[in-house]
Amino acid sequence: MITVSYNQKYNQPIVLALGFFDCMHLGHKKLVDKAKEIALQRGAQTAVFTFYNNHFKTLGKTEKLLFTFEERKILFQKVGVDVTVGATFDKQFMSMDGNSFLSILKNTFDICAVVVGFDYTCGSDRRDCNFVKDFFASRSIETHVIDQVSFEDEKISSTRIRKLLVSNLHKANSLMANNYFIIGTVEKGRTCGRTIGFPTANVQVDCDKLLPVGVFTADVLVDNKNYKAIVNIGGQPTFGLDKVVVEAHLKDFSGDLYSQTLTITPKKYIRNVVKFENKQQLIEQLRQDLEKLND
Prior knowledge:
It is a single chain. This protein has helices at residues 26-42, 55-58, 69-78, 91-95, 98-108, 129-137, 158-165, 169-174, 192-195, 279-291, and strands spanning 2-5, 10-17, 45-51, 83-87, 109-117, 121-122, 127-128, 142-146, 150-151, 154-155, 182-187, 201-204, 214-222, 225-236, 241-250, 261-271. Strands 1-4-3-2-5-8 form a six-stranded parallel β-sheet, sandwiched between helices. The chain has a six-stranded antiparallel β-barrel with strand order 11-12-15-14-13-16. It folds into two domains: 2-174, Rossmann fold (3-Layer(aba) Sandwich); 182-294, Riboflavin kinase-like (Elongation Factor Tu (Ef-tu), domain 3, Beta Barrel), CATH 2.40.30. The chain is of the alpha/beta class. A hairpin with a 4-residue loop joins β14 and β15 (241-250).
């Protein structure tokens, strides 16, 4: 898959799905599927627009991202996107009006058609899907507007999934085309797990990544091989530490994980992160957690 900046000339014809695509929920998937359908008819490539960075920070908000930019590219590739069009959401970008933004896209890319959601807006003046449709229609480019996609009579949205992720991972996953996952690099930790017979990988995760808190069963992909694992996401109250960390104990793994990149897919919530009175209590709980991998 190709990645280009929104103001970087790209000569191949594209059908462009506009949005942010913080994840690939079922509403997003419908946009991409429509773009793919049109692209196939036109002999074009399927493209999606997204931001490189956490745009919430530029807006002065504290929200984190369901998926980082690098993780989103994996999601896009899985659903058949050919081109990722990226932009940095900074003060300059934020001040651009909708007409200017769409003009840059039109002048930079060979756009065959555009696909947007019914609630899409762009620009500092928050131009809606009707404006987008009129803008491109005047330039002989069709725009397809995708209606709301709902689940249990409520719109599926990234905002809804963010809220669900911290309370109901299973339901959050049911609203997305692909299950939630975490990509991070193993760094040296305190090695406490190794001293009690449960070596864990201390996984460094992007600070903008939204994490569910708790202990989970998980699948962990490392070096193209998949392992069952127990993953702890949260503080380490037994050791008096509040900082949120991601620690993974891989069943049946032997070897050195330092500096390796792991893809962690939490599967099932087991329990809260709790403080144990002593190491023996912690060991006993970890043994019980491991039994959950056989459920």
